[in-house]
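yo, Lipoprotein-anchoring transpeptidase ErfK/SrfK is done. seq:
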Amino acid sequence: MPNYRIIVDLSDRMLHLLDGNRVTRSFKVGIGRMLTKTPVGEYTIINKQENPGGPYGAMWMGLSKPHYGIHGTNDPSSIGRLSSHGCIRMYNNEVVELSKLVPIHTRVTIRQ
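structure:
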């Protein structure tokens, strides 16, 4: 049984999926703008919703920090940029892939 956790590196705008201490996948992400920065800290995934509508793309995975999550986007050009109101944006196909791997309660570390 995999022991997944997620690390989001804000400095290089990458999300890393780890199994134990080994990185198994890495994804380019969009993060919060200057005035709406992505919050640094330790969180968990508390819910998932497919096709939530609006700017959230194909998948929403809510974090234990209210109003923040890892989600898809209806604007693929925003990936790799300071583009969100603090959430972690991913390409739709990649966030769907990630959501199938990680269960609710997966630990998410967001760091500078």
